[in-house]
Write a structure and sequence with these properties.
Three copies of one chain form a homotrimer. By secondary structure, the first copy, chain A, is of the alpha/beta class. Chain A is built from twelve helices and eleven strands. Chain A is globular and about 55 Å long.
Chain lengths: 318, 318, 318
């Protein structure tokens, strides 16, 4: 694996899930695979679970990790070709990235979208420029539009919790929030479930919250949450701001908050959320505290997702 | 040892001191005890000595440590049952803590009091909630009302510097400061000295600076600093704000600043302070620079205190 | 080597360069030299390349490194003898430094100048006080007036890229910037090239940008950039603010920006800059993107510079 930014970087999703579950069963199975290799973890935005789970994954592979916390504020990177840098940007990605490429064997990056300029955010210029100029495998720790380690972890979690031969019905439902949130987790979950082909996949949201079709195509999409939840085996709850009215919040949508009443429509479904979650805004206490809630397991599986991806990168390097 | 928050978590204080001194003599005596174990260090407030000394202690035991810097500002946790999280809190401890419990074998936490609401601070809701929901041993790196690693280190330091058979006279004296300071260090020192029973213990402070009796009961308490210092073997200098007029500073109390004149009343006493110290406000240069000053040794002993506690936790885990 | 703050700490610069190049060829040649030793890295100002390259160097020597991020803002140190600390400073270096001296075997420090008070900055009171009170080797990670790891890395880079028997012509040219910048990198480069004696050294800058003669004495100094560049083999580009009108920016000096036209005067020179660089302000894209540009190599050589210095310190300790 050269980089890990979207499903397009993965040739065999079920094999990657299987590798993650192998590590979950035997964390130190490849404890020397990363010996003498260095993982840089570049955070342009805060991170807690992603940071720790990826460090643990590297440690399990015998790989050294190096944390670089760079606020967008105190180290503004320039990405424009030919830019005259007499303003707020202090370093060009063309100058910074090659050095990371020499210091590290793999570089992880977290970068959030500005939610102001859709074309800019969806060009993924930050992570793509890093990939172009660093010339080593790039591991997305959540980028402007996608969050692949979360999605891989979500698929691992679904597979672990589904024992039938038939495909589960997986529903991604929009949830209310108090401020504009990126589309990353929703885009990414949709892309991964569609590419995986392991589920009957339904997306439901209020009008105006349509996602980028390049990620959702293949799923059934409905504005009727009740219809969507009917017979669901897994319900993934997530807020996102508008894609077409970019970054806007069109409605408070309070009725979309998932409660036990909604869950009664499902097939005793498991509930999922990537965390952090605002209780009793996105979904109710009773669901989060219910044994069917999988949020802790999703977060724990981040370790095995990262470990599987890092091991593929380490194996794939000459 | 399941957790380390107060003396109530310790069954045998002299044995814990002895273990710390054993490690001071032979730092790598148990260099593989923590192999494959992970220590999370969660800082909701800044730390310098505590952070480094605890990391060194973990390293000496072969344990990996993971730093999580979370400002109270950028990651406000919710603690209320049933809270509707449509305000400033972004994550409930019920959702965050179980993940730490899965990532780590032991979790350390630093959290300061707000000094606004005494009942809230003294409920220790932050560290107690972490303990409740993480379900792994919790190591206090200073909490709202106590600072047990400091106090253990202080007892180690007293024991090292006292060679007589009779008990030393230990005096905790209030000192002036320029701003309101938590009662943690004073509470904790009082609690530990009282539980240790290894000293004749006197506390002196101006009227209005009475501490919570649940920590001080057992000590002689006086407003007369001169009487207190008479014949003292160890003088522990520390400012704290009012407990009863919670967080208030009633008087500048400049006369309480410890100087050589005060020390002449003592039995050539050793002086102690947990650092950082404001020179010539809390105590004078001449005392800090005197060979009887123990502040550096107290800070160094933080390593051995942490190592003793971590080793007890590691040994105590099934 | 006891400390590493300026060339005065180094007895044999060519030998140090040779050691660095030895490590570049064989990074793990001394992989156990630092076993059981601890390196503290104290950052009073931000760092990216310095932090990572020094951590990698320590790792290559089997040494543990500990990061301490302390903003000048949130942990203001006091340096004055006899100071009454009732103001903004919270801890005296006399109290803090000895503890670092006990926790660590070597301590690195980054501290920037205030650019307000030349005498204060040039007294190097911060790093010199640390050295005085910590009582262990101090490794400068850039101090108020010098940046020796950068300069050592620069000499390594020059030596690697010069195959002739005759000395290269090395030119340090002032470049424009949009804000006042310390003199550290220029001072340090001048000091090191002069002490090295391996180059014909010319410094060029606009009137008013004269550097401290104690660093530049030995070099040819001219205000005529064209003359300076004539026949140059290496051109080091760097902005600095005025030394005599301390911290002032006297002219925008836009004409001093290095372009291809300037480079045509040289002997197909290599170009150097310590990064970060403001493109098309300090020098033009065409130069930075030209194969003769050495900026990435300079940054990579920081690893080997740090490793050579750390190994000398480790070898020199009893």
């Amino acid at each position: 694996m050269q980089s890990f930014i979207s499903t397009h970087d993965v040739s065999d999703i079920p094999a990657l899930i299987a590798r993650a579950l192998m590590y979950k069963n035997d964390p130190l199975a490849d404890k020397s695979l990363g010996a003498g290799k260095r993982l840089g973890l570049l955070f342009m935005n805060p991170s807690l679970r992603t940071r720790v789970s990826t460090q643990i994954a590297a440690q399990n592979l015998g790989m050294e990790s190096y944390i670089l916390n760079v606020g967008n504020d105190n180290w503004q990177l320039e990405f424009g070709e030919g830019a005259i840098m007499d303003g707020t940007t202090v370093e060009h990605i063309k100058d910074a990235a090659p050095i990371f490429g020499e210091y590290f064997d793999i570089i992880g990056l977290r970068t959030f979208p500005g939610l102001k300029d859709r074309a800019l955010d969806y060009s993924e210029n930050v992570i793509r420029s890093l990939q172009k100029y660093a010339n080593i495998p790039v591991l997305s720790l959540e980028s402007a539009t996608l969050h692949p380690l979360q999605s891989l972890s979500d698929l691992i979690t679904i597979q672990e919790n589904w024992k039938k031969v038939t495909k589960p019905k997986v529903v991604l439902t929009w949830a209310p929030h108090i401020k504009p949130i990126p589309q990353c987790v929703a885009n990414s979950f949709a892309q991964w479930v569609n590419a995986w082909c392991g589920a009957d996949f339904v997306i439901t949201h209020p009008e105006g919250y349509e996602l980028d079709p390049s990620y959702t195509d293949g799923a059934t999409i409905t504005h009727n949450q009740q219809d969507a939840l009917e017979g669901a085996d897994f319900v993934y709850v997530k807020n996102w701001s508008s894609y077409y009215n970019y970054g806007q919040v069109k409605t408070d949508g309070a009725a979309w908050m998932l409660t036990e009443k909604h869950m009664s429509l499902t097939n005793d479904a498991h509930t999922m959320h990537c965390l952090p979650v605002r209780r009793n805004v996105e979904l109710s206490d009773e669901i989060l505290d219910h044994p069917n809630g999988l949020t802790t397991i999703q977060a724990v599986n981040r370790v095995w997702a990262a470990q599987a991806v890092l091991s593929e990168m380490l194996n794939g390097r000459p």
